[in-house]
């Protein structure tokens, strides 16, 4: 099954090239981790708590959390572009600081927003249609069907148009229409690939969801699993692009 083969390809890309993966991500992801740990250590009592309008958190926690999120997004873009370029072009930095190409990062950010927007629109459309058609007939027995349908629609659309991300990172930008043509007829492959990626990421995060751990330990664990999820997600898009667009083998 092609979806499974592409997932394995994305996974082995990490395991067989662990040192380059660390070189690409250590400094950017380290910055994000440092920002997150600062918030966790400075305001441990507020981390993970639901916001209460009657008892708002201190301004420092809000500003620190926002800054941490911004740094995290920036680091994710930096790592994503670097990992795409390593996998597709063999680009390796001389030291431990990966090349910082702001033009590629900004372009990647814009393409990511566009892909997520299209995925969200697809999810809302499908979920709404299923709810209108099924809920009046079957009531609460099918309450989960619209959400599931929306999720599958979002995955399908995101991965179909998502090949523009590795293309742009490698300096070979694609049009949206070209991405749709390249991924035509691959719905089953994309759904399998998306389910495997989301499933593995969820399973990695499950322990922290089930057990109330120390705030520092939970923050570190989230960053470790987040790194795996990021590298795997970027790798699956790279494998999909490499096989469907560039004709690279998956084995």
Automatic annotation (TrEMBL):
The signal peptide, as residue positions, is none
Domain of life according to the entry = Bacteria
Question: Which keywords accompany this UniProt record?
Answer: Membrane, Transmembrane, Transmembrane helix
The transmembrane residues are 21-41, 61-81, 113-138, 144-169, 190-208, 220-241
> Can you say what this protein is called?
DUF4013 domain-containing protein
Organism equals Jannaschia donghaensis
